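ok trying this again, last paste got cut off
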Amino acid sequence: MAGGSFLLLPLRKRILSEQLLTNWPDAALSVLTVLIAHENHAKRIAYPSQERISALAGISKQAVADSVAALAKANWLSIYTCQISGGRTRFEYHMIYPQYQQGDHLSWLRIENYIVFNGIWAVMPPSVRRLYLTLLALSWNERAAYISGDNLGDWQNTDIMQGESRFVPVERLGPAYLQKLAGVEPRTFTRAKNWLFENGLLLVNDEGTAPLSPTDFYRTGILLVDTPTLVAQTVLDRLTKKDRAKASPGAIRSLGAIRRAIRHERPSKKTLCTLSQTASRTQSDKSEPEQFFKPASSTRH
């Protein structure tokens, strides 16, 4: 689900239960994140082009097609082929995974939209994406703090963390534990961790105890820093390459009109859509998408 400046992935509980990242193909995980970033949370529809998904997911168009087909087969989404104005055709992705329920912190990961739309997600190596999602799953989400060692359902409200950064306490940062959750080997884990530090997405925090906390949390650990000014320019260049080729003022005005038409385009009674994949048209919000990826025989590289 996408809302405002962030998106929500229904993956937190699965990561903490060691049920997810070891078994998911990298391409499917990347595509799902991009599609949810484009999702209209009211209508539960996304329709980025395959070229756009390819650029923002950092994979080939063929890998995009294979990944959305796999996600449809597993009941994460349904794929429709729609005839729209001007005789054009587009794919629409109707999301059928369970919706977010207010207060359900344990099942969801919050990712800021700029991670996807600034191209950062695309240039992250697959092992970095896995480690980043794992750290998000272990982090204190805004002012809701996960107490290490207690039950997953034990959340406390605290004024320790203010601003946009999220915090992971040191006792949750054991390399072997993180490697297991993320499904990466030791050498790959070290490279992934260094990538996040070198690109400013992680910072060390060692300010000691925090007396404002109801349970006196210890603040030594790492911060996942929100850095909306971070941009992967090569990805953005790929997205706008065709636009820059239309250099004349008239062409630029025409292109702007097309963009505005697409931005404000809404499904209508004249829009004809057909289901492209064998998947349920409707699904209970309480049902879970299938865990359809086969367990890996060893940890991923």
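PB: full thing came through this time. The chain is about 35% helix and 15% strand.
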